[in-house]
Design brief:
Length: 223
Amino acid sequence: MENLLANLKITVPEKIYIKDPETSDLGRRILEHSIQLIDEIGLEAFTFKKLGQKIGSNESSIYRYFESKHNLLLYLTSWYWAWLEYQLVLETYGMSRPEDKLKRAIEIVTRRVKQDVSYTFINEVILYRIIVNESSKSFLTKEVDLENKEGYFVAYKRIITRLKDMISAVDPNYSHPTSLASTIMEGALHQQFLRDHFNSITDCDKEITPNAFFDNLVFKVLS
């Protein structure tokens, strides 16, 4: 799978950025070090000035790539969802039984991420922590409807649609496949957050994973 992913280009909606950061060394360093810095200090404390100091570049040079840190977060989350979609497609390709395919899909979208060596400027393990802690801030804004119309969340919606289709393949008569699919996606992140920060209000721990919880939930709902 790593060889296949190495030949694939993760596509992010063009309107999110001013200049594609993957096309230059500076752009790739912006992505690499912004992930590290957001993970270290959080999105609220993160600024382009601090990022510029970290990479040894002027703040103005970062604005040539992204209009704001909100757009940078949109880029990172869109990149992650598109990357996760590749995992989902490749790891379920050729599976004939709908139940097996859905089970594998739930595992993929709920598991903790491992480093993918195909993209040296993106640390997927650190990026996953940002997705868990910060991704909701990319769409809990007043501009969400406009940005949705502009296609900013297309990768996120596409992976939920794939999951919905797998649910329907298991039980064509189930009335709420899209709601269940989006619940799995968001619920997995929420359970990871609770496990890390509010473990008294989740059953997920070192032994019980979000994958085990959602696998149990989904197949009981569909049985």
